[in-house]
Design brief:
The protein contains nine helices and six strands, in the order βαβαβααβααβαβαα. It is of the alpha/beta class and 226 residues long. The structure holds adenosine-5'-triphosphate.
Amino acid sequence: MPAGAGPDPIGIFGGTFDPIHYGHLRLAQELATGLRLRQIRFIPAGHPPHRSEPCVSSLHRLEMARLAIAGNPSFALDDREISRPGPCYTVDTLTELRRELGPDQPLCLLMGADAFLGLTTWHRWQELFDLAHVAVAHRPGFPQVTWADGMPDVLRRELRQRLRENGHLLHRSAAGSIFAHTITPLDISATHIRNGLAAGHSPRYLLPDAVLDYIQSKGLYTVAAK
Ligand code: ATP
C-alpha cells in the first residue's frame, strides 16, 4: 500500500451474467490489474429492474459465475442480490457493502460503456457516487464515455466533475470518482451467445468450457428468447 493511501480498492461487478462470458471476465481481470484492485466481487442480479427478466434462473446464473471464476483468488462470488426478494437496486447493494466494509474502504463499481450510458435510468443513480467510485470499460459497438454524444446532460455534468485520469486516486478516497479504462475489445454479448445456442451454434471460445459444459448438461438456452 503506497504511503498516504488507504486499503486497496475492492471492485464490485454486477450483471445479469445470462450467461457469464469472456467479455465479463476480461473486463474484471483488466480493471483489477489496471486499477490495482485487491478483489473483484461478482454479483449476479436477481430481478434486474431496468431490463427484461433473465432467460435462466438465478441459481443457474450463480452457478455459471461460480464455475467461470473458479481458480482465480482475486475473484469472489457474492449472492446477495439473488437472495434478496423483489427488484434489486445497485444503490441498496452498495449501501450494504459500505456498512459491512466501513467508510474508508475504497469501493469501485465496474461496468461497460453501455451500462454507464444508461446510468440515469438506475434507481437513485446519483447516490452511487457517494458510495463508490465508478470504473467504465470501453465496449465494442459503444462510444467511448469520455466523448460520448447522446449522453444525458446530467450524466455529462457528473462525468465532467468526477472523471480522473489517474487510477492512483482510487486508492486515496473511498468513493466519488469516475475512471474510464480501455480494455482488450471483445465483441461478445450474452444475447449473441443465447441466440447462437438457440440456433444450434456452439459458443465455444466465447465463454469458459466449464460454463459451456454446464449449459449443455442442463439444456439451457435451447429456445430463442421472445
Ligand atoms: P445481454 O446481452 O444479455 O444484455 P451482456 O453481455 O451485456 O448481456 P450483462 O450481464 O448485461 O452482459 O453485463 C454486465 C456488465 O458487463 C455490464 O456492465 C456490461 O456493460 C459489461 N459487459 C458485458 N459484456 C462486455 C464486453 N464484451 N465488453 C465490455 N463490457 C462488457
